[in-house]
Fold these 4 entries.
Entry 1:
Amino acid sequence: MTTVVVTEQPGARQMLIGSVQGHRDWDSGLFSCFSDCKSLLMTYFCLPCAICNISTRAGECMCMAWCVTGGLIALRARIRTLGGIQGSICNDCMAMSFCGMCGICQMQRELEAMGL
C-alpha cells in the first residue's frame, strides 16, 4: 500500500497577474493633449462621446461613467490596471478632479498606445 502526501491543494492557482504598483509610466503625460489632436478635439467638442468611447474600449458599459458615482476615477484606475501603469487612486482622483479633460485625453492616448 502506497501513502500519498498532498502538500499543495489540487487546482489551486495564483490570481495576481502583475505587480500591484505597476511596472511602467503612462505612455504620455497628463498635459500632452496637443500631441494627439484627434482625442483633443473629440474631448473638447463632444465630451460625452469621448467618455463613452473610452468606457467601451476599456471593456465597460458605455454608460458606466455616467451611471456610477466616481465612474471616471474608476475608469482611469481600470486603464492603469490593464496597462500595468504606476499610480494610485489618489492620483487618479486628483487628475480627474482638477484636470478632467486632460485626463480624458490621456486615457484616450493610452488606450490607443495599448492597442485597444
Entry 2:
Amino acid sequence: MTTLAETDRPIGTLLRHWRERRRMSQLQLAGLAEVSARHVSFLETGRSRPTRAMLLRLSEQLDIPLRERNSLLLAGGFAPAYPEHALGDVPMAAVADAIGQILHAHLPAPAVVVDRHWQMVDGNDAVALLVEGCSPRLLEPPVNVLRLSLHPDGMAPRIANLGQWRAHLLHRLDHQIAVTGDDVLADLAVELADYPCEDPAGPPEPGALVVPIRIRTDAGELAFLSTTTVFGTPLDVTVAELAVETFHPADAATADALQRHER
C-alpha cells in the first residue's frame, strides 16, 4: 500500500506501481487521460515532472483511493488534495447524522459501520443478537468485524453455513486487496485464512441468488442477506473509506424473530 511513509519513492515509480496494479498499458492510460503514451512514459521514468493537475487526472483514471492520491501528491511535491476528518469533527456532522439515521432506520435488523480495515466504527442495537456468545476480547475496541465473524472464539461456531460465508468474506477481502494494495488487509487475509474451518464451502443453495449468513441465536437460526452502502462522490478520505454493512432478513421466520426480539 502506498502510504505517507513511502513518499520518498520517486513519483514515477508510484505511478507505474498503480498503472501495473490496474493492469493497464501506458497506451491505455494515456488514452484515458488524453495525453500521449510518450508523456506517460516520461513521467514514469522521471524524464518529465508531473503537474498537480496531471497527477489528479491520472489518479482519477487509475481509480486510486483518496488516501493514496494524497500520498502521490506529496511524492510529487504538492499538498494533499483531500482532507481527512474524524467522524466526530464538525465538518462531518452531516455524514455522522446520515449514518445514524441509516443505523436506526434499519432496526430491528443489524447494521454496522466499518472503516477501510473492517474495524467497526458504529453499529445499532440489533448487532448484539449476532455477537452473543463471542469472546469478550474480540469485542474490545477496535473490533474487526471479519475477525469477529470467522474467529473460532467469535461468531464462527454459530454460523450454520460457515464454509460458504467464510469463502464469501475471503473472496471479498482478496478483491479489496487487489484494488487497494493495502498491506494491513493482506496480513488480515493471511490470518483469517489460517482459522480452522471443517465446513467445506460447497455449491450455492439451489435457486439462491446471493450467499446468506445463517447464524444460530437464542432467537433460533436466523438467515440474513448482507448489503454494503458507501457514500457517493466522496471528497474526504474518511468518508471514502466508510461503509455501512446492513443485514436483511432472508426469510419470514427471521423477520418475525427480529420483531419479537425488538419487543
Entry 3:
Amino acid sequence: MWYLIATQADNFKKTGCYNLYCSGFVQTHKGKYLGARIDKTSIYGGPTVEIAISITQDPQTQNWWLSYQGENIGYFPIKLFSNMSSADQVGWGGRTSTPPNTPSPQLGSGYLPDNNFVHACYFRSLSFQDVSRQDHEPSYDEIFTLNDKPDCVDVKYYEDVGAEIGHAIQFGGPGGLCGN
C-alpha cells in the first residue's frame, strides 16, 4: 500500500498530478515522503492498521503543511493556490488507475462499505477548521460523495458513529471491469 497526495482542478480530466510529480511541494522530512510505501496494512475482519494524516494551514506563512503520523513531512506553498487564503472544500477518499480497457484493481480491502470498520477502508474523526481556526465535523448537508464507478466501488458517509470513530467516510470495492 502507498500513501499519496493528489492535486487537480477538474477531477483529473485535464489537470492533476500525484505525490512528488506535483511541482511545488516542499519536502522537509528526510525519511518520510509522498509516495512512500506503507508496510503494515489492515486485514479484512482482522487487525486494523491506522495512519494519521492531516493538512493544516500555517497561520503566519499561509502554507499548507502535510503531517503523517504526527510529523510534518512537507508543505504546499500558498503561492501554488490562487485566491485561497483558506480552504472552502476538503476531500477524503481513494482512487485506482489502470490503462484503458483493463480491469481495475480492488480499492482498499476489496469490500464495499457496510458500516463495519474492520471491513472496508475508512477515514475517521473527520474534521476541518473554519477561518477562525475552530474545528468542525462535517454534517450531512455539507457532504457530497463522488463515485464515478458505482459498479466497482462505493463510498458512504456516516455522520457520527460514536466516540471511537466519530464522523467517518468508508469506501472501497472489488474493482473489475469498470469502464474507462
Entry 4:
Amino acid sequence: MTHSLLQRQDHEGVATLMLSRPDAYNSLSMELMQALHAELDAIADDLTIRCVVIKGSGKGFCAGHDLKQMLGEGEEDYYRCTFQTCAGLMQRIVSLAVPVIAQVHGVATAAGCQLVATADLAVAADNARFATPGVNIGLFCSTPMVALSRAVQPKHAMELLLTGELINAQRAYEIGLVNRLVPESDLDQAVAELAGKIASKSRRTLQIGKQAFQRQRELPLSDAYAACSEVMVENMLTADAQEGIDAFINKRKPEWTHR
C-alpha cells in the first residue's frame, strides 16, 4: 500500500506502517488516523501478516493530534469526531488479531505517547523522549490517559499527566512504557529482529493469546482463571497446537497452517 500519509511495507509476515507527515512530526490529522485505521482493517483480513510495526518518518515518532487542524475547524462536532476517531483507532490496535510494536525515535507526545502505550510492545531509541503535555496548554490529555493508565502504574501516569514534562527513554523504560532501549542507529534492526521472532509463530496462536490477555486483565482473579482455562481448551483443539506439540515431542520444526 502506498498512501501520501502512510507507507506500508510487508516482509516475511511483518507489516511495517510508517506515519508519513515528517514536516508535522507525524501529528495525527483526521486523514492520517483514518488511513491508519483503514490499513489495520486490511491487515486484520490478511492472513499472511503475523506482526505489525508502527513507526514515524523524519525526526520523531508522533507529536499527537494536529492542533493546527483542530483549531482551524473550531467546532464542537469536529472536536468530538476527532477524539472519537482517535479512540476508535486505539481500540482497533488493541482488538487486532496480531501484535503491534511501536518503534519510537525522537519524540512521542500526547496522542503519540498514547499510541506507544496502546501498542502491545514498544522499542525505543535511547535518546527518545515522551510526554503528555496537554496540561501545559490548557487541554488535559484525557484520552491519552486511558492508554497510559493501563500501561504504567497510576502514580507514574499521573505524574506525566499533571506535569506535562518530557521524560527520557530510560525513565520510560523504568516505568514500563517501553520494553527495550537501543541506540537509534540500531533501532530498525532491533525492531526487525523482535518482529521476526513474533512473526515466526502461529498467527492463530498469537490471536488467541492477545485476545485472552486483553480480556482477562479486567476480570477478578477467579474469573480470569476460569476464562483462560477455557481459552487453553480452545487453543489445544487448534490444528497449530496439535502440530506444535507433535513437533516439540519429535524434535522438529513446526509447520504452521495458522488454524
